[in-house]
Amino acid sequence: MPRSRLIIIAGVVIVLVVAIGGFVVYDQVLRGDNVAALALPSAAPSTAASTAPGASSAASAAPSSGTTSSATPAGASGDVAGTWTVSGGGQAGYRVTEQLANLPAQSEAVGRTSQITGSMTLATSGSTTTLTAATISVGTTSISSDKSMRDNRMRNEGLQTDTYPTATFTLTQPVEVPAAALTGTPSDVTLTGDLTLHGVTKSVHIPARAQLVDGTVSVLGSLTFPLSDYSIVAPSVGGFIVSIADSGTLEFVVNFTKG
Question: What is the pTM of this model?
């Protein structure tokens, strides 16, 4: 067999080995499991820290428990006015679609954390309740997925959590709270404010749902946006390029208690 043909065959074999090896790395180490979207709790959430995606089935939704209900009837005039502080049971994180090089395999990568702090202020006037202020901070260094390799890369690439350890959202426009939300019915609201992620601040409008149940206000929301808006680039894994879709999704469910 001519030497040139041997070189070509060897080259093809090497390419195949690299491609197959890369796929095995992706399939065995990086590929994410299907993780359900977050959901509003049906009862006052537990203050226990939530588990990371992939650790247990409970990670796919905010946990709930039979904690004691608020002694004050929800929605009664003046009851909700004041400052509410982030309590336990919430989660925040990301959801993106990953793909190794040009191979057809795809999966959703989901990372979450329960390290959320912040507060909001509600004001009442007659029968109208308004969210007048809110600030939420998420500790990005504690975000974890079902794959430690992905999490390690996120510290230096992607979200670069070592450099940008906090993501924040600050409300910039008041929001009228639907009366139904104050009696326990999940209700649609739009949160307009400044989202700071990966060191970049953008004004955003976040579609969300809110409810007051057992003395706890829970807010569920998600925002899909172009990753380039926040200067986020795909990390590499083991020398292979893992591409992600041009957009990613921020997901959260945050719980507040008064006082």
Answer: 0.75
Has domain 3-258 been given CATH number 3.30.200.20?
Answer: no
Rounded to the nearest 10°, the torsion over CA 63, 67, 70, 73 is: 70
Per-residue model confidence (pLDDT) at position 66: 38
* Angle subtended at Cα 140 by Cα 109 and Cα 24, rounded to the nearest 5 degrees: 30
Q: What is the mean pLDDT of each run of 10 residues along the chain (259 residues)?
A: 53 42 46 76 63 42 37 51 96 83 68 97 96 98 88 83 95 97 97 97 98 96 94 67 74 95
Count other Cβ atoms within 10 Å, centred on residue 186: 16
Please name which of 200, 204, 169 lies closest in space to residue 190, comparing C-alpha atoms.
204
Backbone φ, ψ for residue 127 (5° rounding): -95, 5
Place of tokens 């329960």: 114
- Integer Cα distance of 56 and 37 in angstroms: 14
Residue ranges of the alpha helices (H) in 27-181? 148-156
